[in-house]
Sequence to fold (277 residues):
Amino acid sequence: MKPSRPSGALFYLYGIGILLFLYLPIVAVGFASVSKARYLRFPIHKYATGWYVSALESDTVAGLVATSLTIAGIVTIVSVVIGFFGALAFARYQWRFRRIYQKLILLPIFFPQTVLGLALLMWFNALGIIPSWHTAIVAHLVWITPIVTLIIAIRAYGFDPSLEDAARDMGCNTWQIMREVTVPLLMPAVNSAGLFAFLLSWGNFPLSLFTTGADSTLPEWLYAKMVSGYSPLVPTLGVLSVAASALVIVVALLVRSLLPVLKNLSTQRQTSHSVNP
Fold:
């Protein structure tokens, strides 16, 4: 049913209000990043873009970004692989203790991250492991892998198992069914889960604070600079971090939209070669 004109205008105003509520804080950070003054104050009297140059030329910032990207990249790959097979066990197969597995695999999501980070730090100390960015990867995986598993499992619940049975009746083995049927059907969820994993790891502060040890990630450095030694470099890096996250999402959407086109072109090329050898 199409809404009336007053109702449509009300929906538009409601949507605009929600967007303003979500993005006005980021706009404020953007204004603070171009302030010439060393300390944050509004209104801004003098504007300058030199802090962006300083951020891009800083070796410290480059090291922080490299550490954060390394952690987020490894966490994304490992969590997607574990979550993919975990989701199949979660949603597609009946086996003993399956319900207990479903509850236990989702339990870390409900732990406060500070409590989980403290528990992992104590566990690493008990094992004699010195915290570093490597242990931060383990900490991120403990919290992010259940989220990835849940996202892929929702998609796994949605597709018809008879598609796999039909492929098996056609003579496909388990690997062929996985490659030709299961993976393509779950790929949208895998892409979404990968984006969630990367962004959750990239911006994670509580787990990183407890488990990185002498190493430091970008969110940790931003917090440290906020509580001591503030400069406009802090909001500048915040804006760049948000821009980088948005860029990752845009690139992922572009790749997702281009993949069917490339697949169609490849199919057409193979068809033309088979018709005209």
Residues 265 and 271 are 10 Å apart (CA to CA).
